[in-house]
Amino acid sequence: MLSLRDISKRYGTRTVLDRVSFDVGRGRLTGFVGGNGAGKTTTMRIILGVLAPDAGEVTIDGAPIGEAALHGFGYMPEERGLYPKMEIGEQLAYLARLHGIDRVGAVRRADALLDRLGLGARRRDKLEALSLGNQQRVQVAAALVHDPDVLILDEPFSGLDPLAVDEVVSVIAEHADRGVPVLFSSHQLDVVERLCDDLVIIADGRIRAAGEREALREQHAGSRWALEGSADAGWVREAPGATVVELAGPSVVFEADAAVADAVLRGALERGTVRSFRPVRPTLGEIFRDIVVDVDPGADADPERKDAA
Amino acid sequence: MSATTTASRPTADGRERIGFWQATGLVAQREITTQVRSRAFIVSTVITLVIVIGGIVLSSVLGGSASTEKVAVVGDVPAAIADTESFEVVAAADRAEAVRLVRDDEVAAAVLPGDGQTGVTVIALDEVPAGVVAALSVQPEVELLETPDASGPLRTIIPLAFGLVFMLAALGSGATIMQNTVQEKQSRVVEILLAAVPARALLAGKILGNSVIGVGNAALIAAAAAVGLAVTGQGALLDLLSAPMVWFVVFFVFGFVLVASVFAAGASLVSRQEDTGSVMTPAMMLVMLPYFGALFFADNAIVMTVLSFVPFSAPVAMPVRMFFGEALWWEPLLSLGLLVAATALVVLVASRIYANSLLRTGARVSLREALRGE
After folding, report:
1. Distance from first CA to last CA of chain A, Å, rounded?
2. Is B191 an 8 Å CB contact of chain A?
3. Which residues on neighbouring strands pair with residue A74, listed in sequence order?
4. What angle, rounded to 10 degrees, do the helices at B199-231 and B236-267 form?
5. Contact between chains at B14 and A105 (C-beta distance less than 8 A)
6. pLDDT of chain A along its 309 residues, tens only?
């Protein structure tokens, strides 16, 4: 398990990370979500040892991460970059060798991975000769070529078409199935929602929520219900204890406690047939907006930003 | 979760912990192979070699073409003429025929039996044929009490040559190092590299790789020049250079690493090719200094002595002083020691600058920020 404990980082007077703590379990795909400038990239760089934190500790299975453990990390930085004028096969093999894989093994792995990502025939092409989508696939391959023990992926899906997203997802999921902790950030909340087992939400350098995806949704579910009947649902507005959120003909979304919801369902059955009735769980996007809006931006972030600027 | 089965993975799977020097070697190897394979590198190397060899051959053909002169001889050929290969003898029956050959410009001069000390008369058209006259003259023996001062053209040419070779090689490699470093920053590949190997291994590999290329290139040019001189029969010139040349090579290698470190550290301060100018200029000054110093002050013993101990100019000034026998035996050793110490110091400082500024993008990082690691 990869664990972060009380990681803080300041740039001058600006606090970028404030006592950040969370875990990335083995075999778990952990989504890392936050707005621009929330501290995702800084957190990832600190995990990778590329940046040093001002305080706090990153451990793997309880032990501090040393140089040897770092060699087993796979990293895809948000700002993409490889050598534009180097053949992609050679480039991947070079990166594998920097991670300590012998020459023969490095070439074999690079070729196998390129085959897997549908780029086998282009291994002698220079990176700059590839389309942007294919360059992105090579970038993913660069993070995986040494069979990493830990995967840190910053925005791995940006710039990929839906087909490529699926390919990359399946490769990443394979690594997770082998017991590799995977942490990935993304702006595409729908992809994160579909993919991740656990979720970490960061805003303004602080962790706002962390845990299993379903547990988080449950936690933020509130008491919202959706009902679709055969008759116009306008009468729900009059129902005692229920607050209508959305109304469109026979469909209604309302907030109520469980007893009131039961009463509304009975009322609907009296008025006709009921096609569906279910509790509404918030999407990741809604949770995210909830959490980020909850943060009062004036209170802790803005004055410091002005100082820094 | 399968924590127990996977906890022992790190060393399985053929992955080994790679050390600093191994990482340095890999980085250096990549620097070398990608550059040596690039078309620009091959073309420029071939052009340089052609110019060097061509220049030497051409200058010998144009400069020394009058190596044999035709000389008409009446009667017995004097030994002085027959013994050298400088003259081609054309037999003439009598004075009239010899005069005709001279007038028709078929021979440069004619030698006839005559009176006087030498026993011959030389006939030529409108100019005393110096070569023939010298061959036939009797010269007294000359004894010099002291070896002559090396002065005149050599005094200018040797510093010029040493300085030029060093400057061209250092500037060429320096520019390459700078370009590659900025390119790695600009293309952001550096972040992936830094996640795999420490910044100082990246820097060391870059310096090592480019020094190998730079020194190798200079050696290739020197070899080509030597071949050119040997082929055109000017091999004797090479003997002049031998001992100080060895020192020049030693100084060159260390001086080169010094310059390469300065360029790499400078390059890591900027993040775009367009911004390299601001850090390139001071770095270039450090390279030009020895060249112009040795050129302008070649005759000034005090300045040359000082320059030969300043690490940046020592690679040029010290071999020059040794070439003219002006340095005591311990002087190159001390100077080399200073150079090595300065190189180590610069590499140390450079790796600090490098590590602290590699991940900074956008505006140029100030030197103070980079050193403090803010």
Report:
1. 38
2. yes
3. A151
4. 160
5. yes
6. 899 999 999 888 888 899 999 999 998 899 998 888 888 989 998 998 878 899 999 998 888 887 777 778 888 888 778 888 889 999 999 999 998 888 999 999 999 999 988 888 998 999 999 988 888 889 889 999 988 989 999 888 887 888 888 888 888 888 889 889 999 998 778 888 888 889 899 988 899 888 888 888 877 777 888 899 888 888 888 888 888 888 888 889 888 888 888 888 998 898 888 899 988 888 888 888 877 765 544 444 443 343 433
Integer Cα distance of B47 and A7 in angstroms: 57
The answer, for A120 touching chain B at a CB cutoff of 8 Å, is no
Q: What ipTM score was computed for the predicted complex, to two decimals?
A: 0.72
Q: Does B18 touch chain A (CB under 8 A)?
A: yes
Contact B192 A82 (CB under 8 A): yes
Could you tell me if B53 and B69 are in contact, meaning their C-beta atoms sit under 8 angstroms apart?
A: no
Closest CA to A276 of A295, A253, A305: A253
The pair of three-digit structure tokens given for residue B155, joined into one six-digit string: 């005094």
Q: What are the chain A neighbours of B30 within 8 Å (beta carbons)?
A: 94
With an 8 Å Cβ cutoff, are B2 and A77 in contact? no
List chain B residues with CB under 8 Å of A73. Answer: 195
State how far residue B294 is from chain A, nearest Cα, in angstroms: 40
The partner residue sitting opposite B15, judged by closest CB among A45, A51, A101, is A101
Letter string b/e over residues A253-265, b meaning 16 or more CB atoms within 10 A of that residue's CB: bbbbeeebbeebe
Look up residue B109 and give its DSSP letter. Answer: E
B30 touches chain A (CB under 8 A): yes
How many Cα atoms within 13 Å fall on the side-chain side of residue B260? 26
A-B C-beta contacts closer than 8 Å: 107
Map residue A111 onto helix, strand or coil: helix
What single-letter amino acid sits at A81?
G
Q: B10 CB near a chain A CB, below 8 Å?
A: yes
Please state the φ and ψ torsions of residue A54, each to the nearest 5 degrees: -75, -30
Residue that has been written with the tokens 């050793």 in this structure: B333
- Nearest chain A residue to B30 by CA: give it: A94
